[in-house]
Amino acid sequence: MPQSEYVVQMKGITKVYPNGIAANQGVDFNVRRGEIHALMGENGAGKSTLMKMLFGLEQPTEGEIIVNGETVNLSSPTVAIAKGIGMVHQHFMLVPSLTVAENMVLGMAPKKKGLFIDMDKAIAITEEYSKKYNLHVDPKAKVVDIPVGMKQKVEILKALVRGAKILILDEPTAVLTTQETAELFRELIHLKEQGFTIIFISHKLNEIKQITDRLTIMRGGKSMGVYNTAEISMEEISRLMVGRDVILTVEKDKAAPTDEVLRVENLEYTNDWNKKMLDRVSFSVRKGEILGVAGVEGNGQRELVDMLFNLNVPDSGTVTVNGKSIVGLPQRKIRDAGVSLIPEDRMLYGIADRGTIEDNLISNRIYQKEYNKGLLFDMKAIHEMSDRLIEDYRVLCKSRNQQVKMLSGGNIQKVVVAREFSSGPVLIIADQPTRGIDVGATEFIRKKLVELSRAGAAVLLVSADLNEVMELSDSLIVMNGGHIAAYFEDTSALTDEEMGEYMLGLKRQSDEEIGKVLYAK
Amino acid sequence: MRNKRMFLFEVARGFAAILLALAVAVIFIALCTDDVGGALEQMLLRPLFAKNGTFNANSLWVVLSRMIPTIFTGLAVCVMFSANQFNLAAEGGVMLGGFLATLVGIYVPMAAGLHLVVCLLIGAVAAALTMLLPALLKVKLGASEMVSSLMLNYIIMYVVLHFLNNNFADRSKGSTQTFPFLETAAVPDLVPNTDLTWGFVIALVFVALVAVFLFRTRWGYAIRMIGINQAFSKYSGMKVGSVIVLSQVIGGFLAGLGGGIEVLGRYSTFLWRELPGYGWTGVTIAILAKNNPLMVPFAAFFMAYLERGCELMRTNAGVPAEMLDIIQAVIFLFFAAEQFLARYRQKLVVKGAREEMKQAFDSEAAAKGGNA
User: Can you tell me the ipTM of this complex?
Assistant: First the structure.
């Protein structure tokens, strides 16, 4: 049989998850033998789903996977490994308390007398592979003690020991420093020279340009085509990645912002892995306007929101609401100052899943006089409030006593939004307010946001959805690598291409331009 | 409709667990005696019915009196488990509460009526304060309250025994016990000349109080929400640490109160020389009641009935008393096992979801039709 040009072919792959989300729709994906192939796209574009199917973690609803010219049914990672496919996850799958060598042979340990693990042999195997592929690790060190870069090498070696010829690397540089990244690239090129095929998931344009041969771009669950890396410009990639498909428009009057409500100055934060997540972030939001925060996820937006609600503490900098500092205040005090938050992680912060809808609607107002009669709850007032909110926010449910986890994603989010919007906030922080929910609920929530801002609330809208952030925001900042990369006072003339370039770090405004977002007192 | 279906399912699941536990019990009973039928009769019927089938009131009083301390410990565990705090020190709380209530009953004479109340309160408050230990260790240092409360039980036991042996023992008695407490400190009988005291009524009053507290006050609400999702509660503005401490202090108070009522109601001196075991039963009861205070009396009745039945089985059919522990353990296993009949539950959930989707679809279609 003549060897096919392609080592992996995925044809017409469609994946529908049990909750009805179609993460992949008719995707074609081909990888040549011995190339480094980038799979690019924004979060939620379907890259991970596609790769999970190639590694046997998920099964396609439709479509065919061909590995080395043979149609395969990858029912589990074990099968995928047997076919020579290995995957290095973004979050390492290592046992921290075991040594590197022990991790290396986990599940396939060499045995002594058929019972005991032959540790010497495990170390020998580790050293052999380490040398052969030029991936230096210390076999006797415990994983918990080694740096992130070495952990990644252990992961790669683990895949190689198991016979992988095709390596899938899921955003391998997200956790690495610049030096570690450079080292990783050298090692990957070395592996390529020895005939390995590498699939490289990323949305960092400069890295892709640096080491890949070809690239496939995904957007909204579909493939936007495959290109030779040398023949496509960064601008073109960025356009393909972040361009808008359907534009949901929301009618809104021109903003007439008045007093400053939120003022953030020189916020700095370095995370536990010594990565600078917020770098001199300063901006302000005024009454009656929506300030959008755009950016590819992981560029400091989450950290920023955490700081604004004391879910994390900044290294330095100030945050004031109506002139009063809120850094370090307990959440109840922050809420008393009139701040509402629609959290990014709905299931973690947004709701108590086993509680009723009513339980979830009153959580931020249980101490208010209105809902208490002396020591006891005023159940009548609480029931009335719940029923009113359920109606106003069109939460589809049987009654206020239904468990909130029984609702659909969109209705759960409506419960969160109803609670946060109805407490009379002066500042609303909306973090990915419509992620993963249906079109109807999305439209409803967007309209409400505009409505509230026009009624006088200050709104900070953080969203990785370009369409959303550009449609709703009156003015807009773009975050890249913990910096504010750009500030646009007026969003109406802004193009996707321009945004994409700032989001992906190809361009950056001058400090003076960015500084305008902090209004002079 | 789905909620009702799920409720019925949970009830059926409970009965299935009990039936299976009894089936396992039958195997063990068969190992101990030839007359399995006779033994089962002792266990299942005799607690309430005499041999000729007539209702046995005296035996009922015994069963009800056994519920008094376990209702309190069941409530205590309910409150703590609701906040997702696996504090197991209700056991020690009972002993401490009983001991201190007795001491006040012996050495601090007061007017009738007032005396009993003061005795019980001091026992309960002391037990409540003791719970600050595991609670603060948890909140301030992140130490597992399960481990520290478990060990706390033995600390309490040995401290109580130390003072009992060295300071308060009545040397004229053959066994180690205190002097008798004053008449004014005794919990009066509800049914004369039985063990069933007014403590039973107080217990039921506390069932109502705890239910109101958990479901109708902001603190009870905070306890329940923290039990479901701590991150959500913090984000919503609740003081998570304080509420965690509060839940355990309340648990200690209830356990201590139960201990005082038990000692001052059933006995005339303090004579426990080991942990009385009511705290452990309280854990079983809270799990059977699914942390719902209103279900606690039923669970406590079931446990008391079972205990009485096993006692009769031991006396009259020669089956060892340890059988109770085996049956308890098996019930515990089936109840606590989330996966028991889980596949069937999943089917119910899916069925419900389908119906709901169809309904939504139908109403949507109807609405569209109406517009057109």
Answer: 0.83
Q: Is B120 in the same domain as B242? A: yes
Task: Report the share of chain A in percent with pLDDT over 90.
Answer: 55
Same domain, B240 and B279: yes
Residue range A335-349, pLDDT digits in tens: 999 999 999 888 889
pLDDT, position A21: 63
In terms of domains, do B174 and B253 share one?
Answer: yes
Does B228 contact A406 at a Cβ distance shorter than 8 Å? no
In a domain, B48, yes or no: no
Task: Evaluate if residue B371 carries a pLDDT over 60.
Answer: no
Q: Looking at the predicted structure, is the pLDDT value of residue A109 above 70?
A: yes
Find, in chain A, the residue whose alpha carbon is nearest to that of B209.
A376
Q: How confident is the model at residue B372 (pLDDT cuts 50, 70, 90)?
A: very low
pLDDT over threshold 60, residue A395: yes
Query: What three-state secondary structure class fits A165?
Result: coil
Domain membership of residue B46 (yes or no) is no
**Residue recorded with tokens 């089938």:** B53
Nearest Cβ partner of A375 from B217, B225, B232? B217
Single out the residue in B280, B299, B318 at which a domain terminates. B318
Same domain, B331 and B192: no
Q: What is the mean pLDDT of residues A7-22?
A: 80
| Cβ partners under 8 Å of residue B153, min gap 6 | B88, B89, B91, B92, B275, B279
How close, in Å, is residue A331 to chain B by CA atoms? Answer: 5
Distance from CA of B230 to the nearest CA of A (A): 9
Domain interval for residue B15: 1-33+320-372
CATH of the domain at B171: 1.10.3470
A313 touches chain B (CB under 8 A): no
Residue A358 pLDDT exceeds 90: yes
CA distance, residue A517 to nearest chain B CA (Å): 28
* Residue A256 contacts B where some CB pair is shorter than 8 Å: no
> Phi, psi (5° rounding) for residue B49?
-125, 135
Q: What is the rounded distance in angstroms from the CA atom of residue B213 to the CA atom of residue B221?
A: 8
Whether residue B239 sits in one domain with residue B153: yes
Asked whether the predicted pLDDT for residue A246 surpasses 70, the reply is no
Is any Cβ of chain B less than 8 angstroms from the Cβ of A359?
A: yes
- The band of A510, judged by pLDDT with boundaries at 50, 70 and 90, is confident
Q: What domains appear along chain A, each with residue ranges and CATH number?
A: 1-84+165-242 (3.40.50.300), 93-163 (no CATH), 256-338+425-521 (3.40.50.300), 350-423 (no CATH)
| 3-state secondary structure (DSSP) of residue B48 | coil
- Residue B49 inside a domain? The answer is no
Statement to judge: residues B4 and B138 lie in one domain: no
Cβ-defined contacts of B351-360 (< 8 Å, 24+): B352/B1, B352/B2, B352/B5, B352/B6, B355/B1, B355/B2, B356/B2, B360/A396
| Residue B15 and residue B28 in one domain | yes
Same domain, B147 and B265: yes
Q: How many domains does chain B have?
A: 2
| C-alpha distances in Å from residue B49, one per residue of B192, B205, B240, B317 | 21, 28, 50, 16
Question: Which of B236, B242, B359, B362 to probe the A interface (max A CBs under 10 A)?
Answer: B236
C-beta atoms of B235 and A353 within 8 A: no
Q: Are B218 and A348 in contact (CB < 8 Å)?
A: no
Q: Nearest CB to B225: which of A349, A363, A377? A: A363
Counting residues of chain B whose pLDDT is more than 70, the rounded percentage is 88
Query: Distance (Å, rounded) from C-alpha A89 to C-alpha A158?
Result: 12
CB contact under 8 A, B232 and A351: yes
With beta carbons under 8 A apart, name residues in chain B contacting A377. 216-218, 221
Contact state of A335 with B237 under an 8 Å Cβ cutoff: yes
How confident is the model at residue B281, as a pLDDT?
A: 92
Predicted TM-score of the model (pTM): 0.77
